[in-house]
Write a structure and sequence with these properties.
Structural class: alpha/beta
Radius of gyration: 16 Å
Distance between the termini: 45 Å
Largest sheet: 5 strands, mixed
Shape: globular
């Protein structure tokens, strides 16, 4: 697929196939297997793959996420909003090239950032985003960058997957703790 919208509308049973100059890459979201993935309605417009998307505007904290964690992150932002905390949610549509400009602009404005992803904490894209924020945005931060991730262990079997993956409660707790810093 050439656009983000095309990737998102792929049939869940097939996963997503992305054609590159070197062949085809098949990407399958882990939530496809347990029926949690939902398809977005296709309005016919093509979205580019090389930018992040601000899914929700906010002024208190930036929540950066992608893939399967977008749904939980938006739910967390809704829950935080009910508490008077306005979270900006950024969907990192592609990890390479990574659109750091959108992330930096948001974090510079809110002063706080939580990176949410389902992979292990160590050596992941979340760590790379956090390093970029430390290099380019440190003086704008009001609190340390937090990561809410899977654990640094082997992914468990499906029946215990819910114990491994970040959930609504972990995201909301991290946001509250980040806002209380300092």
């Amino acid at each position: 697929y050439e656009t983000y919208r095309e990737c998102r509308k792929a049939l869940p049973s097939e996963g997503t196939r992305i054609k590159t100059g070197r062949g085809t890459l098949k990407v399958v979201d882990i939530n496809i297997f347990n029926g949690q993935a939902k398809l977005e309605a296709d309005d016919g417009s093509a979205l580019p793959l090389d930018v992040c998307y601000v899914l929700r505007n906010g002024s208190d904290i930036t929540l950066v996420t992608w893939g399967a964690m977008v749904h939980e992150t938006l739910q967390a932002a809704d829950q935080l909003s009910a508490e008077g905390i306005e979270a900006e949610v950024i969907d990192v549509a592609t990890l390479k090239p990574l659109d750091m400009e959108t992330i930096l602009e948001s974090v510079s404005r809110t002063g706080r950032c939580i990176i949410i992803h389902e992979a292990a904490r160590c050596c992941g894209v979340g760590a790379e985003i956090a390093a970029n924020l430390a290099e380019s945005c440190l003086l704008n931060l009001l609190a340390p960058v937090r990561r809410v991730t899977g654990y640094d262990t082997v992914m468990p079997l499906l029946r215990n997957e819910h114990l491994y993956l970040p959930g609504l409660e972990r995201i909301v707790d991290a946001a509250r703790e980040t806002l209380e810093f300092g």
